[in-house]
Structures
1.
Amino acid sequence: MKRIEKVFEAVAELCGNQLKSTGQISGVSTDEIARKLNIHRPNASADLNLLVKENRLEKIEGKPVLYRVVQNYDSANLKTHLSSLKSTVLDEIIGAKESLRTAVLQAKAAMMYPPVGLHTLLLGETGTGKSMFAEAMFNYARETGRLGASAPFVYFNCADYAHNPQLLISQLFGVKRGSYTGADRDRAGLVEKASGGILFLDEVHRLPPEGQEMLFCLIDKGMYRSLGEIDATRRAQVLIICATTENLESALLRTFIRRIPMIIKLPPLRERTLNERWQLIKTFFKQEADYLKTKITVSSNSIKAFLLYDCPNNIGQLKSDIKLSCARAFIQYVSNKETGLAICTEDLPEYVRTGLLRYKESRENLKQLSIGDESVIFESDAEDVSTAKSPDSFNIYEALEEKMRLLKEKGLGENDINLILSLDIETFMRKYMSKLDGENVEQLYKVVDKRIVEITRNFLRIASQKMKKSFADKIFHGLAIHISCTVERMKDGKSIFNPHLDEIKRSYPGEFEVAAILGGMLMENFGIAVPEDEIGFITMFLVMDDYAGKKDNARVGVIVVMHGDAAATTMADVAARLLGEKHAVGYDMPLDQKPETALENLTQLVKETDEGKGVLMLVDMGSLVFFGDMIYERTGIPIKTVEMVSTPMVLEAARKALMMSSLEEVYYSVVNLSPYLGRIYMDGTSYETRIKDDVIVTACITGTGAAVKMKNILEKLIRDSDKKADIIPIDIASIEEYNRKLSKIKREKNIIAVVSAVKPEDETLAYISPTDLIEGKAEKLIARLGAKRAEDKDENIMILNRMREVIRENIEIDADKYIDGFIELYNNLKAHEITLDEDMLVGLVLHLACAIKKIEMGDFLKANKNDTQNAFLMEHYKKYRNILKDAFSHIENAFNIKLPEEEYINFIKIIHLNSRVK
C-alpha cells in the first residue's frame, strides 16, 4: 500500500476514535500522523495536503492545523449511522478490511452525507470492479434506509454514444416532442428515471462537451432540460456516481473534481493482497460450480498459477480466465461423463501458467493461505472450499486400483493393463517421493500411529547398517505413511498387488532381502503376515533415496552458443533478468578459437548443464550447428539444436524449461515462436533441406512413465539393428490431446509406428500394442526404418509445409486446407513440366491465398487490360488453361469457390515473368 493511503487510513482511524470517545470529530494534526506511522513530518504534511486537494480530507485552519475525512464529517446524522452500523453490504466486499478499507469508509460517508449523499467519482483501471462497487454503494444506501426500497439504480455507459452527442443527450435527459424529425412524442430520459435513486455513469471521460455542460448544470443546480426544450426546466433529485479509467490530472477530470466532492480510488489487482485474490478466485469458481450445477476440482498448481500470474486487466480478466479454464475442462467432463469438473494446468491459458514461475518467491505467502499440494474442491452450496487428499495421505494401493479401473474403462486387456502398471510404477513412486518434504516427527504423529513411526525409524536404522547408506527424512516420512496404509488395508482383509514384483526381485535382490525385515517387524507388532507384493513396495522406498525426484524435478538445460566475446552470455543474462531466475547458460566462442577446442568445452558444459531431461542448444551459425550431434555421440545426452539464435528465442526456451516442459516441448516452442526465427538441425542436416526423420511414438495413458520405458525397449532393439530413428515418448491426457499431438508430430516427422495402449484415430499410422512389443513382434517395425517417401525429397514440398504457419498468421483462411490443396496443385503442374523455383513458389502461394480471401469476401478479381492484349501471354494461357483448370480444382473444391478466368491469366503471368514455362 502506498504511503498516502496509509496516511488517509490513519486519519480515518483517529477520527473514528474521536467519534467514539467524545461524540464529535475535532480533527488530526500532522504530528499525530507522523508519530503514528513513524514517518517524517514533512512527508506527512505533503500527503495530508495532497489528500485535501483530492477532496478526500478537510483542512481546519488553526494552531495546529487539523485534518478530517471529507467536509462536515462530524454531521450528527452521519455520526449516528457510522457508529451504529454493524456489518453491511459494503463490509462484505472482498478486501473491505484490507486494500478497500479506505474506499469502503469513503463510500459509506458519500451515501450517508445529508441531505441525499455526495456525488462520487470512482477511479480505477479497467476491470477493478467499479461497476460492482457502485452497485454495492446503492445497496448500502437502501440497506441503511437512506434510499427507499423501490429507489432505482440506472446504469449508462457514456462510451456507447460518445460519437453521437444528440443521441446521448436524448438518452440522458429525454426528448421533447417535435424536437427533431421522428420525435412524435415526449420521452423521459435516464435522469428522470433515476430520480429518487442513483444514476451511474460509466466511462464518464467519454462524455462529449455538450453532455458535460448539461450534467454539470444537473450537479450544481439539480436542474436540466430535455432535448428540444427552450424555456422550461425540469428538476431531479438524483445522486450521481461516475466511473473512469482516466488519470486524475486530465483536463476533463479536473473539471469534474471541482463539482464532485467524493473521489474514491479502487486499487488494481496487483496492489491487492494475496488473500483478497484468493477470496476472489474462490468466489468465481463457486459461481461457475453453481452455474454448471456440479462440483469443480482444481489442482493445486492451477490455484497457484491463478494466484501468481500477471493479470493486467484486473478482476474482470481473472474472472474471464477462470471461466475460460472451466470451459476447456467442460469438454472432458461431458465426453467422459465424469461426476465433476476437474481442472489441471493444461486447461489454463498459457499466460496464466506462467504464474508458476513465481512460486519459489511466493512460497511462504502461499503457506499463510494454507495453499499446499492438495486439489481444491468448489461446490455452490458449500460455505467454504474443501480439499482433496494431500500427498501425505497418499495410498499407493488406491492409486493402482484407480489406474487399473481407468485402463479397464478404455477397453484394455488384462495383459496390457499389467504391463502398463509394471512399466509405470517406478516413475510413479519417484514422483510421490519428490513431493514429500520430510516433515518433523511431531507432525508425522498427527497422521500416523506412533508405533508405526517408531517401527519405521528402527527399520531404517537397521537398513542403513546393512546397506551402508543413510536415508533422507522424506524416505522416513513417506515409508511411515505407506506402512500405516498397509496395516490398515490388511486389517480390512484387502489384497495387495504389485505388478512390478518380478522386476523388483530381479533388479534389487539385496534390498528385497532387507525389506523383508520390516515384514517381520510388522508381524511381530501387529500380527499380520506381510505378502511378497508389499515387500516389493518397501524395496522401492529403499532404492528411491539414491535418485528420488531428481529427474522429476529436472529441467531441460538451455545453452546459448555464439561467436564473439559477450553475445551469448549477454542474451542469457537478459533472459535471466526478465524471468527473475537464471537458467540459460551462455558460451562465448572467440573468433580465433579452434572448433575442436570449442567442442571440448561445450561437451563439458553440456554435462554440467544436463539435469536429466536433455539440453537445447541455441547457436548462431557455422560449425556450431553440428556440435549437438557430436556431443550426443560422446555423452549420450539428448540434444536439440536451433540455429540463428535471438533474444526472444532464449527467453522462450528458458521460460518453457523453468515450467518443467520436456525437451521436445521446449524445442518445438522455440521453433514455432516465428516461422522466420530459426532453422533446426538434427543429425547434422538442415531441417529445410533434409527429408523427414523417421520416428516411433510411444504413448502412455497414465503419464510419460510407461512411454519412457517402452522408449528404452525400442532403443535397444534399434541399437541391435543397423537402422536409425528417433523415439518420442508422449503422455495421453485425453484421447483428443493424444490424436492432436500425433497430428503435430506427423507434420514434422515420418512416423513409422505408434506404440501405445490406445489406437490412434489416424488409420494411416502403423499401430503396435505394448504386449506385441514385449513379446518381440517388432521385427517388421524395425525393418520399416529408413523408408522414405519420394515427396519428402522435394525441397519445394518442405517449403510449402513451412508456409502453413505464414498463411495461418497473416491471411484469414484455413491454412492446412489451403497448403494441402496447393501441394496437389504443385504436383499437377510438375507432372506437366511446369517448374517452379523457391521464390516463384512462395510468391504464388501468397498471391493465390490473397485471391481466395478476396473471393470469400465477395471482391471481384480483375485481369490487367494490358495482359489480355499481350499476344504471347494469351497464347500460353490458351495452351495451359485446361492444365491449370485441373490443377486448381483441388483448391476450388476445398474452399467451395470458383476461380475466375482472370485468375488463370494472373497465374500464367507470374510463371511467364520468371521464364520457367517449358
Note: Residues 794-913 form one domain.
2.
Amino acid sequence: MSRLSSSTPDIKRAQKGIFEIAFERPRSLRAFFQNFKSNLQLTWSRLRDAVRLVKDLCLVSPVAFCLYVVAVLWPSVLSALYLCLAAFLLQAGAEFVVQSQIADAKIETIKELCAASLLCPFANAFFEQLRYQCSRRIKHGFREHFYPILARRTLAFDLDTAIAPDVQAVLPQPWAFEMDNSIGWEFLCGLTCIVQNLVTAALQIFVISAILASRNLIHFTLGILGCTALLTTMIFIPTNGLGGVGYSFWTHHPSYYHLAALHEIIFDTKYRETLLKDGSINFVLHEYERCTRELGFLSFDAEMLTYGLPVAWYWQILQVLVETPLIGFFLTNPSNKGISSATWLTTGLFVQFATRQLGQNVKKVRQSQKPLLEVLALAETFYKFFAIHGSFSEGGRSYPDETHSLPSGMRISFRHVNFHRSSLSARPAVKDVSFDIAPGSFVLLVGENGSGKTSLLHLLSRLFTSSAGDISIDGIPIQDFEAQSLRESMVTLLQSEEVYPLSIRENLSMSLTESDRAQDRLKAQSFDIASKSGGSNHFIENLVGKYETVLNPVGRFNTSSDVFGNGVVSPVVLEEMYRNAPRASSIPISNGEKQRLIASRAFMKLNNHPDVRLLVVDEPTTSLDARAERDIFAGFREHSSGFLYLSNHPVPGQVIAQVKAIAPKFFELPQSAKDELDMKNSMHFHGYLKVSGETLSNDASVREQFNFGGARVCSWKEGEPEYLKLHGEALWPQEEALPGFRDTMLTYYNHVEDLSYKFTRLVSEALGLSADALDVFFDKDHGNLQPRCKILRYPGTPDGKPGSGIAAHVDGSFLTYLLQATDHRTLEVKNLSGEWIPVPPKENTFVINLGKTLEKATRRVLPATPHRVLSPIGEPRFSVAFFSSIGHEIRVAEHNLPFPQEVLDMKLARDKKLGVDSNFSFSERDMELAGEVVLARKLRSHADVTERFYPALFSKFYPEGRPAKPNTGRNLLSK
C-alpha cells in the first residue's frame, strides 16, 4: 500500500490498486484515554434521559416490560449454565482416566446438569415466545401512549421544522405502519442487546474464575491471564487494515466510471426505450467491452473496500494465539509434574472452550450495531423532540376574530417581509416585500419563475415563517392567531398537491368542520356540485365505487416472505387473496384528472365551510388543457363579485377625510336652502334631489343626493345638439352657508377624474390590450367630457325594518368610483353565481363598479356590476360616487377592440356556464352618439327637468304627460 501526501495533517492518504484512500490518523495512547474520558462523561450526561425512557417504557406496559427483561437475560444464564456443564463433564472425564471411576456425588451433579441442559431447548422456546409476545405488548403501549403526542406535535410544526433531521429522527417512518421502527423501540432493542452481552460476559468471567479457582493456583493463574489477554486483545486489536478507523475511497480511472455508466445503461430498463429508438446498441456494447479490457483485474474493488481491508498478518497471528489458550497448556505441561496430564488437558480444553465463548460475546459487544453512546443518544434525541418549537409561534386568537374580521374577506398586510427558503441559498426567496390587500379584493400575483410568488403564499398560509418583517391579518399580527383556525379560513390551491390515500368522499370533505361533514352526509348534492365545479365529475362517475373509491390505497405485506423459510406462495393462494382481499393496487389517473380532483376539493371547502375568508390559487392547472383550465377558473370567478376595492391610489388621504367630514353637512342645510339648489333648476342635471326624486328602471330611489360636475361653463348655443346642455357649472350653496364646501368637492372631483384616466389604462392592460386601446372611446384631452359626481344620503328606516335605498341596477357609466363615507354595510353586489354579497367600507379605498357603457365597449367581456343599497337601520348612510363617461361624440358600436383569443375563450366559457348567449349584438341606441344616449337616460329619470329645459323632447319621453310622484321604494328589497 503506497502512501500519498495530504493537505491536512490529521488525514492520511493511501493507494490501493486504482483506488485512493483517505483516513484519519490513528490516535495515540494519550488521545485514546482522552477520548475514553470524554466518552465516559458524555455517557453519564445521557444516562438521565435513558433512565427516563426506560421508566416510561416500563410505565406504559409494566408487566410486559419486566417479563421482557427476564426473557432477554435468559440467554446469559444459559451461557453460564453450559460452561458449568462443560467444566463438570471435563473434570469427570479426567477423574475417570486417572482413577478409572467417578465419585457418586459428582455423577449425581452431572446427571442434574445433563437433565437441565436437556430442558434448556424447551426453556429457550418458552423464553423466545415470551420475548416476542412482550415486545409486541411494549410496542403497542409505546405506540398507544406516544404516537398521538408525536402526531399532534409534528402537525403543529411549520414545514421547515417538520422536515428538520432532529424531528424526523424521532418520528416513525410513514411506510412502517405495521412495523414498529420508532426511536423508543430502537432504544430498547439496542440497550437490551448491550446489557445482554455485558451480563453474559460478566457471568462467563465469574463462572470461569470460580471453576479455575476450585482447581489449583496454576490453573487459576493461567485462566485469568488467558481471559485478560483475550479481553485486551479484543479491545486493542484493529478491526481493519487501517488501524480500525473509517475511511473514504475514490478513483480517477476514467474507464471505471465509464464502465459503471455503461453497466447502468445496459441493465437498467429505464434507458431501454431511448437506447433502442436511437439505434445505439452497437456503440454501447463496443464501449462496454473496451472499458472491461482496459480496466482489467482489480486487486482491490469497491466491494472489498466497503466491507473493510484485512488486518496485517502479525495481528492475525496474535489473535489466533490469544483465541487458542490450549497451546499454552501444551507448552507448560512438562513443568507441572504434580498435576496429572489428564487434569491438565481437561483444564486446558475447558479454558479453550470458555475463552472461545467469552471471545465471541466480547466481539458482539464491540461490533454491536449501535454502541452504547449511540443507544443513549436515542433517548436524548427523543426527549429533545418535545422541547423543539422551531421558528413557528402562534397565539391564542381564533380566526375569524370577532372584533376585527369581516365576512367579505381577509385584510392582508405585508411589511418589509424577508424569507430564506434554504440556508444553502444566498438569494432570499422573498426580499423586502410590502403590500396591502383589502377584503374581497381580486389580486393577481405576477412574476418570473423563482421570484417568490409561491413563497409568499406559503408565508400567508403559515406553512413557513418569515425571516424578517411583519405580516398581519385584519390588522392583527399573523403569529397571534392559532395557525389551524387561520388555515381553516383559507382555501389554498397549490401547483402540486397530493391526493390522500382515503376515499374520494373523504378527500373532498376532510377540510370541513365536523358539523359540516355531518350535514354533507345528508346532502349528496354538495359533492356533485364540488366535483362539477372542479371538473372531476366525469371520471368519478366512471368509477365503480364512485365517491367511496380509494384511488391510491396504502400497500400492505399480503404474502409471507420466503426469506424466513415460509416457502413459495403458490399462484392458487395468490388468486384467493386477489379474489377476497380489499384492493391494494392504485387506480391510475392522469395528472389532469388529479388536478381536477384537487380543484374539486377546494370547491368543496369554498362552498360549504362557514368561515372561508380567502381563496389562494397558485398555478393549479399546469396539467390541464385550455378548456378545463378555463372551466376551473370560471368556477372560482363565480365566487367573485364583479367589483373590486382600489387602495394605494393617488387621491390624498387628507382630501378624502375632508370630503367625509363636509359632505354630510350639505344635507343639514335648511330645506329652503336645498330647494334653491333643486335639480329642476339646472338644465345640466346638477343640483339637489330630495328623497324619491329620481326614478331608475321605473322604480324610485329612497335617498337624497347632490349632483355636480367639474367647473365648466355651458357653451351650448341655439341649434346645437341638445346633449351639449349637459355641460355646465353646478348649483352650489352660498359660501357663507357652507364654507369650503365647493372648493373641497371640486378638489376631490379633480383628483378622482385624474385617477379615472389612469385606472382606465390599467383596465385596458388587464384585458390583454395595449394601455391606450380604450382611448378610442375618449376625445383627445377629454375636452368634451364632464364626468358626474353625486353625494348620496340614504336615510335610516324609521321603524327599524330593512328597506330599499336603491333597487338592484347597473350604472350607465363607464366606471364608477364609490367612496363609502360612513361605516354602513348596506351596499351589496351580485356575483356571477347570483348571490348578493355585502361590500363593507374599507379605510381609504374606492369601490370600483363596472358600468353598462364599459360592458358594451368590451362587448360584454366585462359585464356591468349589478348592485343595490339597503336602507340603513338607524343613522343615515353617506357615500360619494364618481361616474366616468366616454366622449359624447363617440358611437360605441363603431369600435371593436382586438381582444386576445384567450380572453374571448374565457368570456365564452363564462357565458356558457351562466347559460347566457355569448353572441353580443348592439341595440339601435348603441349606434347613436354617446351624448344622445346619456341625455335620454337623464330625461327618463327626471321629468321635471325635461319639461322645463327640454320641452321639444318632453312629449317624446312622456307622451302621457308628467308621471305621478314615484313610490317610496319600500317594496324593492325583494329585487
Note: Residues 861 and 907 are 6 Å apart (CA to CA).
